[in-house]
Design a protein that fits this description.
By secondary structure, the chain is an all-alpha fold. 70% of the residues lie in helices and 2% in strands. It has a two-stranded antiparallel ribbon with strand order 1-2. The chain starts with 20 loop residues before the first helix and ends with a helix.
Length: 450
């Protein structure tokens, strides 16, 4: 395994894969578990509570479908690189993530590094696929990072107004630990930080759900649910865009995380259980919020909170967990950009990062873009609509379109009912992603700049 690249390196960027199944689950959940939870009550309000829950669960199951297809695409491309396969369906490798090629001249084997998301699209579609992947990743991940800082500023200044005279100071304070976490070159290195962040996020969810049950009886809950519209067609596309926003990270990080696992052949089930946990937590908070604040649901749920001790604690917990979330999500962005830059120079990202001078240059560039995300956070209007715009523009392409087209292009038709269902699902999901990109972008942008 090549060293230094998050797509192939272990937690410390070394040559061994040391990420366990639980480490992979934590990393994937933490990458997905970001600011979207705060917009879940707003999303359910826009869609209608019942329609919103059904839509969110289906969107996550479609994400799992996309993950399975992407894993198979990655396996086929790696087998092709190794000279051990072409476009035939190839089982996942359960040995070392380095594929060896025997060279006729020396009789020795040379390692072939596994692929990240951008490289999968590049090898499938050429430069068009590469730039489409970079665009989708940059919009979705960098847009998420901007939203994280926006949330931290809004909430810390609301619950602790006496700390700083200017609320924008919270953005710049947050950038300090973020720059430190931009140093790693491997996603596995961030797993311990992800675990701490996930614990804080779970504690927040528990606080919100407990407080809702304490303030609202079961009778009041059912009465509000009966009175709520089942489905709101006029605002449903925006709700769908917000739901899509929550799905991007786990798909784009799939190749890197699978390559870092000790047992990569277990990745599909690992991702599935992570998605199930994610659904339960997000929907619990969403339902609690939309019912509790019935008629006055804010785009950021925390802005509905009163200035009590329990809500101050909840706000701090969520802001704290956004720091490692930013680091994991931002890693996806700079891994893709740095890989493209290295390939343009005729090298690879892992080879470039072996030189301290290049490493320092890359690190400085990462820090600059963290500061730029802070500047953008100061001017972004309408939190919920911004999440919808990012979801429609970036996530729809990365999650619902590119992996399905790649699967259809690389995997030959096998015949039989299962294959027909899977290929038919690819076509339908691609059309769904394109429709979401058009409709969701239009509605989000219209509301955002109205």
């Amino acid at each position: 395994m090549a060293k230094g690249n998050g797509a192939v390196g272990g937690p410390n960027g070394g040559g061994k894969k040391t990420m366990s199944r639980w480490g992979a689950v934590v990393t994937l959940i933490k990458c997905n578990w970001g600011i979207g939870m705060m917009a879940m009550p707003y999303m359910l309000f826009l869609a209608g509570p019942i329609a919103g829950v059904i839509m969110f669960v289906l969107s996550m199951l479609l994400t799992q479908f996309s993950i399975v297809n992407l894993v198979e695409v990655k396996a086929v491309l790696e087998a092709r690189r190794s000279g051990h396969g072409s476009t035939d369906r190839t089982p996942l490798l359960d040995e070392d993530s380095t594929i060896s090629i025997n060279t006729p001249s020396s009789g020795k084997s040379k390692p072939v590094k596994q692929l990240d998301f951008t490289e999968c699209m590049s090898e499938t579609f050429g430069w068009i696929g590469e730039w489409a992947a970079i665009f989708a990743i940059f919009v979705a991940t960098y847009g998420s990072c901007v939203a994280y800082l926006l949330f931290i500023r809004d909430n810390m200044s609301k619950f602790f107004p006496q700390v700083f005279a200017e609320k924008d100071t919270w953005v710049w304070v947050s950038c300090i630990p973020l720059c430190g976490l931009a140093w790693p070159d491997s996603v596995g290195f961030l797993a311990p930080f992800s675990l701490l962040g996930l614990a804080a996020a779970f504690a927040f969810a528990v606080v919100v759900v407990y407080n809702a049950t304490d303030q609202m009886s079961s009778h009041e809950f059912m009465e509000r649910l009966d009175n709520a519209p089942v489905f709101k067609p006029t605002t449903f596309p925006l709700a769908l865009s917000i739901a899509a926003f929550c799905n991007e990270g786990i798909v784009v990080l799939t190749p890197s995380t699978q390559s870092a696992m000790i047992r990569p052949e277990t990745y599909n089930w690992t991702a599935f259980w992570g998605i199930c946990y994610f659904i339960v937590c997000y929907m619990a908070v969403g339902i609690a919020g939309v019912m509790l604040y019935d008629g006055d649901v804010k785009e950021e749920m925390s802005l509905n909170f009163s200035l009590t001790t329990i809500y101050r604690v909840a706000a701090v917990l969520y802001c704290v967990q956004l720091i490692p979330t930013y680091a994991v999500v931002y890693y996806v962005a700079y891994e893709s950009i740095e890989g493209k830059w290295a390939r343009w120079l005729g090298s690879t990202r892992e080879l470039k990062l072996r030189r301290l001078r290049t490493k320092l240059m890359y690190f400085a560039n990462r820090c600059v873009w963290i500061v730029v995300s802070g500047l953008l956070a100061l001017v972004v209007p309408h939190f919920g609509d911004f999440l919808g715009l990012v979801g429609a523009l970036g996530t729809s392409l990365a999650v619902y379109v590119l992996p399905q087209i790649a699967y259809l292009k690389l995997i030959p038709a096998q015949g039989g009912g299962r294959d027909m269902v899977q290929r038919g699902g690819c076509y339908l999901l691609t059309l769904f992603g394109l429709a979401l990109a058009i409709g969701g972008t239009y509605q989000s942008a219209s509301k955002m700049f109205a």
